[in-house]
Amino acid sequence: MVRPASARGRQRRERGSISVDEILRGAFEVADEVSIENLSMPQLARHLDVGVTSIYWYFRRKDELLDAMTERVLLEYDMSVLAIDAGTWRESLRAHAHRMREMFKSNPIVCDLILIRGTKNIPAARTALEKIEQPVAALVAAGLTAKQAFDTYTSVAVLVRSSAVLQRLQSRSAEVHFPREYWEQVIDAEAMPLIASIPGRGYRIGMADDGNFDHILDSILDRAEAFCHNS
């Protein structure tokens, strides 16, 4: 239902004529344009062409709205792990790590809600831990102890999450995009001849790029492989 046009010609929906699903869909649309951090209730109301009280009727605070958005993400996005095969555990775990990182990289809102903001939802946390059981079991079958398997998988998970978050933060900050000329002035070939001799000349220092991600990931997998050989 739409109210009659006001003196200024604007039409606004009646309170109660909007649903939770419409509010959440609109919230994701606004967040996609301005980010989760800059999303506001008045801005969302304007986007939906309703009075802000229509939003507060369902969500009294922005935190409540963000909680609902997080639950919707957990429900609709595929957070499942790729099955880890004991016979090819290294390759399958590596593929899993890349898949999860790519999912967070390609979905900034998912990264902001799940990794940066987080959730205290107990059922969601339980579901996440249940999904870890399978890869841990595969690593145990490959020769690791339960603790070694758990530590290996959670280390990979921390790497994926931290890399995705750092890359997300870097993408939101113009200051991290230093031009090549900057590094050419920073790197002194006489004071740091080894770094200056490396292709890239230090441009990747502190960056959450593919090269640094793979280097750390392979180090974790090398350690796990050593556990297998020593068992």
Automatic annotation (TrEMBL):
The entry's DNA-binding region: 40-59
PROSITE patterns with a match to the protein in the record: HTH_TETR_2 (PS50977)
Ranges where the HTH tetR-type domain occurs: 17-77
One Pfam family per UniProt: TetR_N
Keywords: DNA-binding, Transcription, Transcription regulation
Keyword Transcription: yes
Superkingdom, taxonomy of origin: Bacteria
Annotated protein name in UniProt: TetR/AcrR family transcriptional regulator
Organism of provenance: [Mycobacterium] fortunisiensis
